[in-house]
Amino acid sequence: MEYQARINSIKNSYNRPVREVQIPQKNGGPMYTSEFFGSDVFSFKTLEKRLPKPIYQCFIKQMRGRKVMDKNTSDSVAHAVRIWAMDRGATHFTHWFQPQTGSTAEKHDSFLTLKSNFSSQGHEITPIDAFSGSQLLQAEPDASSFPSGGMRTTFEARGYTVWDTTSPMFVRAGPHGTSVLYIPSIFISYNGDALDEKTVLLRSSEAISKAAIELLELINSPTDEKSAVSHIYTTLGIEQEFFLIDRELYGLRRDLKITGRTLFGCLPPKHQQLEDHYFGKMPTHVLSAISEVELELIKLGVPVKTRHNEVAPAQFEMAPIFENSSIAVDHNLLTMEVLHKVAHRHKLKVLFHEKPFKGINGSGKHCNWSLSTDYGENLLDPTNSPEKNDRFLFFLVAILNAVHVHAGLLRLGVASASNDHRLGANEAPPAIISIFLGKHLTEVLDSIEEDRTIQYFLPHVERIKVGGTAIDVKISSLPEILRDLTDRNRTSPFAFTGNKFEFRAVGSKQSSSFPITLLNAAVASSIQEIVEALKKQKGNNDLLTDEDKLTVLRHYIKKTKPIRFDGDNYSNEWVKEAKVRGLLNLKNSPAAFSQLLEPIHANMLMKNGIFSESEIRSRHNILLEKYVKDLLIEAETFENIVNTQILPVAFEFRKSLAEVINLLGSMSAPESRALEKTTPIVEKLQKLMDTLKENIEKFLKIENLTEQVASTKIYLTSIIETARTEVDKLEEIVPDKLWPMPKYSELLFT
Ligand code: ADP
Ligand code: MG
Known about the structure:
- Helices cover 46% and strands 15% of the residues.
- By secondary structure, it is α+β, with helices and mostly antiparallel strands.
- The chain folds into 3 domains: 37-196, Glutamine synthetase, N-terminal domain (Ubiquitin-like (UB roll), Roll), CATH 3.10.20; 202-611, Glutamine synthetase/guanido kinase, catalytic domain (Creatine Kinase, Chain A, domain 2, 2-Layer Sandwich), CATH 3.30.590; 625-749, Four Helix Bundle (Hemerythrin (Met), subunit A) (Up-down Bundle).
- Strands 12, 13, 14, 15, 16, 17, 18, 22 and 23 form a 9-stranded mixed beta sheet that branches.
- A hairpin with a 4-residue loop joins β22 and β23 (501-503).
- α10 packs across α11 (325-345), α19 packs parallel to α21 and α20 (669-701) packs antiparallel against α21.
- It is globular, with a radius of gyration of 29 Å.
- It starts with a helix and ends with a helix.
- Mean pLDDT is 90; it is low at 459-467.
- The structure holds adenosine-5'-diphosphate (ADP) and magnesium ion.
């Protein structure tokens, strides 16, 4: 039966017509992308058009000044946005927020209100549509079912969602031509503790802005107009990797459905070794689905830009143009949601798990990160001569220092049961956090450290051009091209890529919010440290001299040297070398979790006002709980599938062999051999399942969460790994017709 279902799904998939979606039209022709970009977003511009001028100015002032919005202003904004949204079919509104589950949450309320009129004739009820300022500003969902890490007990269930005015509202299509108004929000408890991912990200953005402005003011001469910068943003461009597979086949894999990854499966003879999928032509169904995703995202104001095949078969990537971090995080979460939804319409299933297939490349969420002034100037732009660019050098050194001091914290920020399959496996960034700078910047830092002139190591290129150095391609008809100041290093977890850093260790499934919050916090703290060092160096003088600046730079260049590594991060030599350098190698999540409580990190987070002590404890608890739950679910799913799907199939196979042996008697040598082969595998598997069952029971009896985390390997994961190899052996012996689930070759190549 399963076999027939598999064959039918494969046939269906090949015969399925491609779903066509029309690009928005104007005057009978296609609209340009820029013309419908953000058409579902209630932008500040739209708001300005719809509000009386003084009220709009009041709104902007109150928003910037972080003041409580007065009733008149908030009511006016609420009215304007309701009319705008209802004209687009909105019947409901929702405060859209990011609990610590990795995804988003929403509760819909309709605009419908009943107005009662009491008169001498009796009681009359009139239906009206209404939306007040206070409804816009905050809502009070029951918070008791969201993770809080024990910060509050269930009877103190109050939580508040509060409109994050920095992120614009938008409408999203619902069923039957209706739509819903989305109000991006933060989520806090009755006591004001952060229960979500966004509050802490916004706090960390403020911390970095404050510190960075202080540094800029200190190193710029007073006549420098750049000292007028009033806000620094962290910018973020998130490359999202994912798999897209046939939905019907997916439906036949219980492991994928429950755990997000395949718990069994043999590698097909051809998978990714030819590297022929990377940047190849996208399959038509996939391109059709991704194009529809893009159409929706463009309307939602998500600036999607890049799409391409990734290294593994059926693996793809989408990336937007970078934005202010908190908006970029919102937009990444929206991208994931829209991908999920639209894939469904195309009979595809998107997999965001970091490692859905053993032996095949996993997926990450590469976070391209930089700092920008409110004038849009990139503070990590090395310009033509980074060696003379104080501003660039100080920010660079601050980041080196942040990563050096808080590498353990950054490692913690990407720790999860699912990302463990990727980090440290021989493909993705390793668990050792280090920084790649490239030859040119390394030489810049070395020359400062050694107090000598800089050497240009590319002898053929004397001329440095904007954006890099010139390369002569030696074909006269082609123009000279520009070489970036840094080459690429795909193995580094934290790489400088021209004018930004790329934090590659982040998992594809997780929200970028937490890792970026930790990065922002570490950099903010490091900038402050450098500011203090500069002030000390300056002493009572009015201005910093060049020598003062060099002294401080040199100190930090030397101090942070161990964190710089340009070689192959996957090699064994690096593991040894990193140990000599004293770098942490936190191979898995249980080893990484406690970093959050380490005083060096925890104190930094508290001092900068990013987390309170109880918030740190609660985060830590939530991470541990999630880890344990994920692995328990995997173990129970594994046991269930082996006992109810795999072993029965093995028995059936053995029965059919036994019947033939009975029938053929002495002529049944080949069948006997096949039977002999399965016997030890089945016996071993049966025993392993008995042990797994016992282990799960024992595991559940462990009361202390930290102890549970530490015991996952001996009780759960190592046994699953061993048992999996036995199942995979069976997959290669049992006839295709009997095998109870779609195989890797079918999942990856259909
Ligand atoms: P790659 O070649 O590394 O795969 P992509 O083009 O896929 O690069 O993605 C690079 C990402 O980096 C894009 O999202 C881009 O907008 C982003 N990016 C570029 N400049 C900056 C910057 N200054 N700050 C943050 N992100 C940036
Ligand atoms: Mg890319």
